[in-house]
């Protein structure tokens, strides 16, 4: 199938990216990076998390980030919402005029993973998220319902499709505007993506799905392409391929690299294929270099090293 006329990529560096970085990035640098990627053309950006600051000190400045970012029309500013206590904090921001356009609520399709990651059983999480969705919609905040471990679980093994359908249906019934399908620890491959997404789009023909792949095993770009070629219009990515498991001090639940699909590599490939992302690749590469400076280490973007493909003869 051809790509949609416009693919909406969500830049996740400031939230899903930074959650795995032990160095606490200054608030000003987070705001700078968010403003940079918006200027580069991203129309959806994950900006922070309302997780408890004791669990994720990286996001203790969530309110100040929301206050400091430069809002642009047509851009959706997204916040991860772990629970009702976090949402009550966001409600205050919303009423003060510096809230979020969308929130992400996540439940793992794997019961074992949900207990390990969120310390709640799925039924318990559903009850709390149902209440959060009601209050969010009352304030005009859109909901992204995320089903985690869609393609497999690092502690529970293969995940039955029925378990994924249960989470997707729950969020759609609660009024979620979009459904994120999370490859939480990078176990997917393009064949599995085509099979599982084909089944889900057939089962929920009116749903808008978001492709969210981790690059744990180097398949993030390939899996994202497989999803987009099936007709999805939304995809998540992170500058430098950073992200993954929160740096909470808990035992690692996956082996190999953490990290999301690399923004620079994904956007460069899509543009070479003729897809319209609306993103200025040169500005994105510049943001990637700035991200490396902020974090203080070389990240995992190939395009930062190689640069965009050149189609004209090199100068003498």
Describe what this molecule looks like in 3D.
This protein is an alpha/beta fold and 316 residues long. The chain has one domain (8-306): Alpha-Beta Barrel (TIM Barrel), CATH 3.20.20. The protein has twelve helices and eight strands. The protein has an eight-stranded parallel barrel, surrounded by seven helices. Strand 7 (209-213), helix 9 and strand 8 (234-237) form a beta-alpha-beta unit. Helix 2 (27-40) packs across helix 3 (62-68), helix 2 (27-40) packs antiparallel against helix 11 and helix 8 packs parallel to helix 9. The longest helix has 17 residues, at 122-138. The radius of gyration is 18 Å and the shape is globular. The protein starts with 7 loop residues before the first strand and ends in a 10-residue tail after the last helix.
Number of separate structural domains: 1
* Structural shape: globular
In percent terms, what proportion of residues is strand?
5-15%
Q: Which CATH class applies here?
A: Alpha Beta
Low-pLDDT regions: none
> Helix content range of the residues, please?
40-55%
Mind telling me which CATH architecture this is? Alpha-Beta Barrel
Q: How many separate helices?
A: 12
Find the CATH superfamily: Aldolase class I
- Radius of gyration from the CA trace? 18 Å
What strand line-up does the widest sheet have? 1-2-3-4-5-6-7-8
CATH topology: TIM Barrel
Major sheet summary line: 8 strands, parallel, barrel
Structural class determined from secondary elements = alpha/beta
Mean pLDDT: 94
How many strand segments?
8
What is the H/E order?
A: EHHEHEHEHHEHEHEHEHHH
Distance between the termini: 41 Å
């Amino acid at each position: 199938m051809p790509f949609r006329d416009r693919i909406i990529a969500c830049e996740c560096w400031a939230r899903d990216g930074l959650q795995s970085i032990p160095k606490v990035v200054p608030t000003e640098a987070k705001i700078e990076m968010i403003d940079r990627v918006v200027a580069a053309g991203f129309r959806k950006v994950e900006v922070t998390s309302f997780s408890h600051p004791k669990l994720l000190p990286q996001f203790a400045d969530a309110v100040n980030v929301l206050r400091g970012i430069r809002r642009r029309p047509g851009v959706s500013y997204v916040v991860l919402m772990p629970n009702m206590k976090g949402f009550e904090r966001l409600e205050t921001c919303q009423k003060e005029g510096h809230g979020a356009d969308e929130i992400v609520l996540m439940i793992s399709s794997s019961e074992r993973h949900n207990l390990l990651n969120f310390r709640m059983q799925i039924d318990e999480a559903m009850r709390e998220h149902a209440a959060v969705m009601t209050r969010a919609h009352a304030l005009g905040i859109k909901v992204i319902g995320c089903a985690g471990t869609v393609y497999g679980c690092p502690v529970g093994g293969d995940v039955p499709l029925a378990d994924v359908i249960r989470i997707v249906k729950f969020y759609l019934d609660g009024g979620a505007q979009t459904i994120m399908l999370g490859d939480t620890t990078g176990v997917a491959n393009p064949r599995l993506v085509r099979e599982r997404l084909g089944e889900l789009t057939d089962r929920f023909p009116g749903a808008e799905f978001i492709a969210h792949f981790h690059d744990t095993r180097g398949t993030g770009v390939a899996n994202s392409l497989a999803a987009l070629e099936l007709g999805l219009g939304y995809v998540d990515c992170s500058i430098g391929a950073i992200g993954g498991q929160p740096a909470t001090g808990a035992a690692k639940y996956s082996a190999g690299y953490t990290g999301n699909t690399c923004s620079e590599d994904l956007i460069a490939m899509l543009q070479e294929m003729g897809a319209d992302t609306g993103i200025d690749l040169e500005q994105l590469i510049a943001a990637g270099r700035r991200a490396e400076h902020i974090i203080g280490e070389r990240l995992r973007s190939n395009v930062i090293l190689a640069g965009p493909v050149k189609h004209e003869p090199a100068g003498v």
